TrEMBL record, chain A:
This is NADH-ubiquinone oxidoreductase chain 6. The gene is nad6. The keyword Protein biosynthesis does not apply. Its EC number is 7.1.1.2. GO terms for molecular function: NADH dehydrogenase (ubiquinone) activity. The lineage of its organism: Eukaryota, Fungi, Dikarya, Basidiomycota, Agaricomycotina. It is a multi-pass membrane protein.
Automatic annotation (TrEMBL), chain B:
It comes from Pisolithus tinctorius (Dead man's foot). This is NADH-ubiquinone oxidoreductase chain 3. It catalyses: a ubiquinone + NADH + 5 H(+)(in) = a ubiquinol + NAD(+) + 4 H(+)(out). The chain crosses the membrane at residues 6-25, 57-78, 84-105. The keyword Ligase does not apply. The keyword Membrane applies. InterPro entries: NADH_UbQ/plastoQ_OxRdtase_su3, NDAH_ubi_oxred_su3_sf. Its EC number is 7.1.1.2.
Length: 203, 119
């Protein structure tokens, strides 16, 4: 069940992001940006990283989307100025194609796509891998070093079980205390910057 | 099949059913004055409806973002205060104190007041 929902959420994220960049009304684009954030947060929660997923919804949807909406309110856009039709719209296709192919090529170098049973696509990816190995000598480092947390589900060998947010709290406030103080100084700087940029009187 | 899954299935079904009932059963007599947006009686002529955007709205939203980040970093302390007892509490106090300096600066400068109270 979780695998299907992961794929559905990933598809929802990609579709929403496509609709963000291609919708003509800016407010509709921000609505689809909210949908991107919700789908990404759901994906993260399903992966087990609950704290980061909830923080996505709190911060991205709650504050950053509001900033986007304020920017759209500030810029006086007339909808007839930004709607492009015909050859004005299709002139962007070659550049989009080039950047898309570059992105897919780089991701394929790091995480090879695995599409089983489709001979044409596997032939294409094998050809690309062959060309890669001719021109670029690369040590295939593996990304499999994932730390598995020791979390037994049998009651008689589990000493204690912490929630994920509890584990973060333990580490952040004891071993990562210096990082937390540095983070507070960064937030203080981020607070003073808008105040000083937007003041009228000199103090 | 637990409660959260039933919630995730039931809520979209309910919202779609309510929307579909509205589309199917509600009478529609729309004319131009009803469909166009209402702007307190002004006609939608460019230049009459938009006033200058005050920057204070943006400053309020951005400062809310910074304080929201602070609250997010205080969430793990709220669940683990018993385990990190005194040391963690002092760390959180220092964290809070540094951000309170920023808060005092924000209040004292009057950065988010819409009316000019510091002349």
């Amino acid at each position: 069940m979780e695998n299907i929902l992961l794929n559905v959420l990933a598809l929802g994220t990609l579709l929403s992001s496509l609709l963000v960049i291609s919708s003509s009304n800016p407010v509709i684009a921000v609505i689809f940006l909210i949908s991107v954030f919700f789908n990404a947060a759901g994906y993260l929660i399903l992966l087990g990283v609950g704290f980061i997923g909830i923080s996505y919804i709190l911060l991205y949807v709650g504050a950053i989307t509001v900033l986007f909406l304020f920017v759209i309110m500030m810029i006086n856009i007339k909808l007839s100025d930004i709607v492009e039709t015909g050859s004005e719209y299709t002139k962007n296709y070659p550049l989009a194609l080039a950047i898309g192919i570059l992105f897919i090529y780089e991701i394929n170098n790091i995480l090879p796509f695995s599409i089983s049973d489709v001979a044409l696509i596997t032939a294409l990816t094998d050809f690309i891998n062959y060309i890669n190995n001719l021109f670029l000598y690369q040590d295939h480092y593996s990304l499999v070093n994932i730390l598995n947390t020791f979390n037994p589900s049998i009651a008689d060998i589990s000493i204690t079980s912490f929630l994920q947010i509890e584990a973060i709290g333990h580490g952040l406030y004891t071993y990562g205390a210096a990082l937390l103080i540095v983070c507070s100084i960064i937030l203080l700087l981020a607070m003073t910057a808008p105040i000083f940029l937007s003041r009228k009187s000199k103090f | 099949m637990n409660n959260l899954l039933m919630l995730f299935i039931f809520v979209p079904i309910l919202s779609f059913v309510l929307l579909a009932l509205n589309v199917l059963l509600a009478p529609k007599n729309s004319y131009e004055a009803k469909v166009s947006p209402y702007e307190c009686g002004f006609l939608a002529i460019e230049g009459q409806t938009r006033s200058t955007f005050q920057i204070h709205f943006y400053i309020v939203a951005m400062l809310f973002l910074v304080f929201d980040l602070e609250i997010l970093l205080l969430f793990p302390l709220a669940v683990t205060l018993y385990q990190v007892s005194t040391y963690g509490f002092v760390i959180a106090l220092i964290f809070f104190f540094v951000l309170t300096i920023g808060f005092v600066l924000e209040i004292g400068s009057g950065a988010i007041s819409l009316t000019d109270s510091h002349k």
